[in-house]
Design goal:
Elements: H1 3-10, H2 18-25, E1 30-31, E2 33-37, E3 44-48, E4 51-55, E5 60-66, H3 71-78, E6 80-85, H4 91-98, E7 110-112, E8 118-120, E9 125-137, E10 140-151, E11 160-163, E12 166-169
Antiparallel strand pairs: 1-11, 2-3, 2-6, 4-5, 5-10, 6-9, 7-8, 9-10, 11-12
Length: 199
């Protein structure tokens, strides 16, 4: 038996609680996105920080979505979605999509991409994607999409960052980044996010 295996078996494992796991993963700073899908009259969106690029060729990305999210049905019906990267001044938009929006996209500047999904017109950047796979991952599903279209209309802006349970622009005048907004604000969805209603 190797020294590494011997050491592992001699350790007493402590149970990892969801609360502690969320707190520790929340110390990994991420950008903030709003995933959007659907058509005029039934467009939906949800705030997500569990997003990453996967492959350059083909161009693949993924994000994690709670299994009980309302977005599953919308993405499943249409087979496409958009990933909207939020700018530093879009904290309120992030909070709005982190909670259920009974008014839908009313009052939110957006347009529909040629391939279908709604795009937030004032986002820092966006990708429209076709769903290619959905993998189960505990209480979340891992949605993989192939990029169809991309643009960065707001690339001159600072990005919105999620860190330690808070949202704020990359450059904050509030001292420590965590002071940018209150700790009780609704947070993005994903395993690293603070408690919030499932998308």
């Amino acid at each position: 038996m190797s020294a590494a295996r011997s050491l592992t078996h001699s350790q007493v494992k402590q149970p990892i609680t969801p609360k502690e796991f969320r707190r520790i993963c929340g110390l990994f700073a991420t950008g903030v996105t709003v995933i959007t899908a659907g058509t005029e009259g039934e467009a939906e969106g949800t705030t997500v920080n569990s997003f990453t690029s996967v492959s350059l060729d083909p161009s693949l990305v993924l994000f994690c979505l709670h299994k009980e999210s309302r977005m599953h049905a919308v993405i499943g019906r249409h087979g496409t979605f958009a990933v909207n990267f939020l700018a530093g001044g879009q904290q309120e938009l992030a909070r709005a999509f982190a909670a259920r929006r009974p008014e839908g996209f009313h009052g939110v500047p957006h347009h529909f991409a040629p391939d279908g999904p709604p795009v937030l017109s004032e986002a820092l950047a966006y990708l429209t994607c076709s769903t290619v796979a959905v993998h189960s991952g505990g209480d979340h599903d891992i949605v993989v999409g192939e990029v169809l279209e991309l643009a960065a209309p707001g690339s001159e802006q600072e990005p919105l960052i999620f860190f330690d349970g808070t949202l704020g622009p990359l450059e904050s005048t509030g001292g420590r980044f965590g002071q940018a907004v209150g700790p009780q604000d609704p947070a993005p969805k994903g395993p690293a996010a603070s408690p919030a209603r499932a998308g």
